[in-house]
Write a structure and sequence with these properties.
The structure holds three protein chains of three kinds.
Chain A (H helix, E strand, L loop, with lengths): L7 E4 H13 L3 E8 L2 E6 L10 E6 L2 E6 L16 H4 L3 E9 L5 E5 L7 E6 L1 H15 L6 H9 L1 E5 L10 H4 L11 E8 L2 E8 L2 H8 L4 E2 L2 H15 L11 H7 L5 H8 L5 H5 L6 E7 L5 E8 L20 H20 L9 H4 L7 H14 L5
Parallel strand pairs in A: 2-8, 8-9, 9-10
Antiparallel strand pairs in A: 1-11, 1-12, 2-3, 4-5, 6-7, 6-14, 10-11, 13-14
Chain B lengths: L14 E12 L2 E8 L12 E6 L3 E6 L2 E3 L2 E7 L3 H7 L6 E8 L12 E7 L3 H13 L7 E7 L8 H7 L2 E4 L9 E2 L16 E6 L2 H13 L7 E4 L15 E2 L2 E2 H4 L2 E3 H8 L5
Parallel strand pairs in B: 8-9, 8-12, 9-10, 10-11, 12-13
Antiparallel strand pairs in B: 1-2, 1-7, 2-6, 3-4, 3-7, 5-6, 13-16, 14-15
Chain C lengths: L10 H8 L2 E6 L4 E3 L7 E7 L2 E7 L3 E8 L4 E2 L13 E4 L3 E7 H10 L1 H27 L18
Antiparallel strand pairs in C: 1-8, 2-7, 3-6, 3-8, 4-5, 4-7
Helix pairs in contact in C: 2-3
Classes of the chains: A alpha+beta, B alpha/beta, C alpha+beta.
């Protein structure tokens, strides 16, 4: 990966130009915008659609927009969506099958060309989430070709986090607030007496080429320092933490803990946490036929491990029939067995599951409680 | 006939196969033989499974119970919409097949050792090609004992063949004509000639039976790492992407279905894992 | 290599028990005892197969379990009223050690340590095992699960 040459500084007009350049390169630009009382990810046609002057107020089970006097465009934390909506869409056709008059079957793989996305405003935690999805969907013995096609074509503009929310814990998960590798361009928003501007670095050759087309000036020491300081300050303002222990071992040690009953008393098994999680990837297959009966399609759609039928056995019932077992599966998989299956944690500390849980179940609170229960039981750490 | 483009992923998109033969095993169970219409799938190894698609209905994982060149055989029990459609297939019908998927029995690792095959019900199906492999090269192995439990004499799979193998068979519910053993399959262990420390065991059947058999074998001195069991969980994609088949740290479609008792013991001991 | 009841006993207990044994043999299809009759003998099967059965009017003798090499045939002799719960019919020629039940019971009373050890072995290796086996079969694991009739979720 290129280290991107010299950092530059752009202003809001430069950001408008960035969107225009990306559109001009035939890309579908997806970024944050205010819609229906939330900051959502949607197709952007210009910089004026960015959520300038909007922040969010977050708590367990609570999400509210609030105006910001400073006019910042990226001083909000994760909304209800994540980039998986675009890379790993909620419903997708995988193949079609035709049955000829002679009874022969012909299968055709889905071949619509993948869209060329440009993701604008990818948070460091969400960039790590994309990396997690890469490992799940393309890192095993069988790669998901559709996902890979979209992923390889996607242009990523990361924005470092300077305004963590009350439900954020990326520092505990080692995923933010500073941006890690994997971006084409990385921005840091700086607002002070010298104006509203963005420090920009390129991470790839394409990033450099795009940056070269933008109105810019070389990065000055003051902007660099301000950017660095704002990210460093953000690290100290995390709303949540995870217990400072090996979470994978914690999950393995507490499979029969009492705490699961406590969490489950509040869990509605609605699956919201799995829908908003930027790494939850589970799907189910659906087979459909048309009225002639000779044309069939295979679709897959997002599925949640909270669904009772998720573990339905042929000729039997569901393996995880109790809500307790389904909540336990979600949490132990996310921060425990994900390591065994895909070589990393499945949690990036974005806090979405806390915010969008209708009963406010907090993954960090549960982990702390499990840790306390284990400690009380005298288990080794 | 459509020739599929070579870059098509056979892990995701089925390949057309023709039903070349079908035979009734019992009231609800049939064995179907499948031959490729065009290019065959890569070779299957005993213990692995295919995703077999009934047109317009769906696909389900079926272990291979016979491998003869490009010809695959599967024993299917009618328990739901897709398995019923596959069970009812007639010769000449086309189906779609994906695979091969999953871990194998790994017979080679048992070279020079005594072999103990313990099967319950339809769990005999994935073990059949393993037995074929041993019988094709008996000089590579020590004693072969095949122990089979069935519900009734009429439910015993591959009855003719099983007689030729010299397998010990026990049933839960005998009929008037049954002169053999009655009882659970683990009771047959007393009658099998095997030396536990020199034995590799292969076990498949309902999970309760697997747990009982593996525990008993470990108690008798078979190394838990040498007890290989084939497990079952829901599978949709078979490619490790859908998440349904998780069993603790295992993605059973990828890390299974065949795992060692060392791997299985702890995950099977947690309820609803 | 075959593990039977005898091999599960400590050597001294094995010798103690075999002191009461005498060799016997039966051809196939011989009824050794009937349900309800006096349980005054028991056997350790050396080779052969015996069916335990229950007579059901109109259905005949229904076999519930078979006893083979190395297994103990009969435990009703250990408990009052010393009557067989099931019938026993040889399926093949059988070679066995035969024991006189009152004699062994008396010896167990006389040597409580040996008696307890034998009692424990029968509890674990014979009664316990058969109870576990009966419970497992009660689950009808190989049969269809008739309580639920669909396969893997909705609309498949």
């Amino acid at each position: 990966m290129a280290d991107g040459g010299a950092p530059a500084v752009i202003d809001k007009a430069g950001l408008d130009a960035l969107i225009a350049v990306l559109l001009g390169r035939g890309r579908t630009v997806i970024g944050p915008t205010v819609r229906d009382g939330a900051i959502v990810l949607a197709e952007l046609s210009g910089g004026d659609e960015l959520p300038y002057g909007w922040g969010v107020e977050l708590e367990a089970g609570r999400y509210r927009l609030r105006g910001r006097a400073d006019g910042a465009g990226f001083a909000h934390s994760a909304g209800p969506q994540s980039w998986k909506t675009f890379l790993h869409p909620p419903r997708e056709r995988q193949w079609t099958a035709e049955r000829g008059a002679d009874g022969e079957l012909a299968f055709s793989e889905e071949r619509t060309p993948p869209p060329a996305f440009a993701f604008l405003g990818v948070r460091p935690c969400d960039l790590r989430a994309i990396e997690v999805l890469d490992r799940v969907l393309t890192g095993g013995p069988h790669a998901d070709a559709r996902y890979r096609g979209r992923r390889q074509r996607a242009f990523v503009v990361a924005v470092e986090c300077t305004e963590p929310g009350a439900t954020c814990f990326c520092v505990s998960m080692g995923t933010g607030p500073a941006v890690g590798p994997g971006y084409d361009l990385a921005l840091t928003e700086v607002l002070d007496h010298e104006g509203h501007r963005f420090l920009v670095r390129a991470g790839t050759e394409e990033g450099e080429a795009v940056l070269a087309e933008l109105p810019q000036r070389p990065a000055d020491p003051a902007t660099r320092t301000a950017a660095r300081e704002r990210v460093a300050e953000a690290a100290d303002r995390m709303g949540r933490t995870m217990p400072p222990v090996d979470l994978r071992t914690l999950m393995r040690d507490t499979l029969e803990a009492e705490r699961w009953n406590d969490a489950t008393a509040r869990c509605l098994t609605c699956g919201n946490c799995t829908m908003v999680c930027p790494t939850c990837f589970c799907t189910s297959t659906e087979d459909i036929t048309d009225l002639t009966g000779d044309h069939a399609e295979r679709w897959r759609r997002w599925e949640s491990c909270f669904d009772l039928d998720f573990t339905h056995l042929a000729g039997g019932g569901s393996v995880r029939s109790s809500p307790r077992s389904r909540y336990r599966q979600w949490l132990t998989h996310k921060i425990g067995t994900w390591h065994d299956q895909f070589g990393s944690s499945g949690c990036v500390g974005c806090g979405r599951c806390i915010v969008w849980c209708p009963t406010g179940i907090d993954i960090t609170e549960e982990a702390h409680a499990l840790n306390a229960e284990r400690a009380a039981a005298g288990q080794p750490r | 006939m459509t020739i599929l483009a070579p870059q098509v992923s056979v892990a995701t998109v089925p390949v057309p196969y023709r039903v070349a033969g079908c035979s009734t095993e019992s009231a609800d169970t049939a064995t179907i033989a499948l031959e490729p219409v065009g290019s065959p799938l890569p070779a299957f190894t005993p213990g692995q499974y295919a995703m077999v698609y009934a047109f317009g209905v769906g696909d389900i994982p079926l272990s291979v119970c016979g491998i003869d060149g490009d010809r695959l055989t599967h024993t299917v029990r009618s328990v739901g919409a897709t398995s019923r459609a596959l069970w009812a297939l007639r010769p000449g019908t086309k189906v779609g097949v994906r695979g091969p998927f999953g871990t194998a029995w790994d017979l080679r690792s048992a070279s020079g050792r005594d072999l103990l095959v313990v099967a319950g019900g339809i769990g005999l199906a994935p073990l059949r090609p393993l037995v074929h492999g041993v019988l094709a090269a008996p000089e590579h192995y020590g004693q072969l004992n095949v122990l089979i439990g069935a519900r009734t004499p009429g439910d015993l799979l591959y009855a003719e063949e099983v007689r030729r193998w010299g397998a010990l068979v026990t049933v839960d519910r005998p009929d008037a004509a049954w002169t053999g053993d009655v009882g659970v399959v683990t009771a047959l262990l007393d009658r099998a000639a095997f030396d536990p420390p020199r034995t590799t065991a292969f076990v498949c059947g309902p999970e309760v039976m697997i747990r009982a058999a593996a525990r008993e074998l470990a108690h008798r001195g078979v190394d838990p790492g040498r007890i290989r069991v084939s497990l079952e969980r829901t599978m949709h994609c078979a490619t490790g992407h859908c998440g349904h088949c998780q069993l603790g740290p295992l993605l059973l479609c990828r890390d299974g279905p065949v795992v060692t008792w060392t791997q299985a013991q702890s995950v099977l001991s947690v309820r609803e894992l | 290599m075959t593990e039977g009841f005898l091999s599960s006993l400590p050597p001294t207990l094995r010798g103690w028990l075999l002191g009461f044994a005498h060799d016997t043999a039966f051809p196939g299809d011989i009824r050794l005892f009937e349900e309800g009759s006096a349980a005054d003998r028991f056997w350790l099967v050396r080779t052969g197969l015996i069916a335990l059965d229950v007579h059901i009017p109109g259905r005949g003798a229904i076999v519930v379990e078979t006893i083979g090499d190395g297994e103990l045939l009969g435990w009703s002799w250990l408990f009052e009223p010393y009557q067989w719960h099931l019938g026993a019919l040889t399926r093949t020629a059988v070679q066995a050690y035969e024991f006189d039940a009152p004699q062994v019971r008396a010896a167990m009373d006389e040597d409580p340590a040996a008696g307890l050890a034998l009692f424990r072995a029968i509890g674990d290796q014979v009664i316990g095992r058969r109870l576990r086996s009966a419970r497992t079969r009660l689950l009808d694991l190989y049969g269809p699960d008739t309580s639920r009739a669909y396969e893997s979720g909705p609309a498949r």
